[in-house]
Specification:
Blueprint lengths: L1 E3 L6 H12 L6 E5 L15 E5 L4 H11 L5 E4 L4 E3 L4 H12 L5 E5 L11 E4 H7 L12 H11 L3 E11 L11 H6 L2 H17 L1 H12 L1
Parallel strand pairs: 1-2, 2-3, 6-8
Antiparallel strand pairs: 4-7, 5-8, 6-7
Helix pairs in contact: 4-8
Length: 219
């Protein structure tokens, strides 16, 4: 599971604790910026992987992490404001992809905010990433990565929602977190406009090609 974080050295501990208490077969990779003002405050747990690099923003960081850690069959994404609530969520997601998608797919659970409507977290088979070359659309900064997963998964008929798996999104819009400076930055009007444009351009110009690449490799 890829877990990017910035300026939330205390908050992220709740996510790590929840992962440790519920996981069965997943590693956790915390992705940090080398200019994070709280970098020295992050605890370094022996059962968690950590990677520190230049700040290139969240979506590019996710893509780079897949390249830097290539030896996994499945990759997942979790925000530092998500909490795993269901035991064995990782095994369940992988089993769904293996059994329903024949090893191809994107699985997600109920975040108690968007529910089935949006994959604010996911587990994705690496063969999808290998087919198109990325886990997040190149050009995205922070938003619309979840919309991308939903659109791509639906288009290849390999999107799997599992409501019995709870991965609670402790988002400020739900009153479950304070609206800190990072929330303000990444949810700005300019960010929405820019990332929506990148997402819509992908849908118009690259979705069909990406779907074709994946389906040709499924055969």
């Amino acid at each position: 599971m890829l877990l990017p974080s910035r300026s939330r050295s205390e908050k992220i501990e709740h996510c790590i604790d929840a992962w440790r208490a519920t996981k069965e077969q997943s590693d956790l990779l915390v992705l940090l910026d080398d200019d994070d003002p709280e970098l020295d405050r992050y605890q370094r747990h022996s059962d968690v992987l950590y990677h520190v690099g230049p700040r290139i923003r969240m979506c590019p960081t996710v893509n780079q992490a897949v390249k830097d850690y290539p030896n996994y069959k499945y990759y997942g994404f979790i925000g530092d404001d998500h909490l795993f609530r269901t035991d064995g969520w990782d095994k369940k997601f992988i089993s769904i992809i293996e059994n329903k998608g024949n090893g191809w797919g994107i699985a997600y659970g109920d975040d108690l905010l968007q529910g089935e409507g949006l994959a604010t977290h996911c587990v994705m088979s690496k063969n999808i990433i290998d087919s198109i070359g990325y886990m997040a659309i190149p050009g995205l900064v922070h938003l619309y990565m979840d919309n991308f997963w939903m659109t791509l998964g639906t288009s290849i008929d390999r999107l799997f929602y599992e409501p019995s798996v709870i991965v609670e999104h402790m988002h400020f819009t739900a009153g479950k977190s304070a609206a800190d400076a990072l929330y303000v930055e990444v949810n700005s009007h300019d960010m929405y406009v820019s990332d929506e444009l990148t997402f819509n351009n992908w849908k118009e110009n690259d979705l069909e090609s990406d779907v074709s690449k994946i389906k040709s490799n499924m055969q």
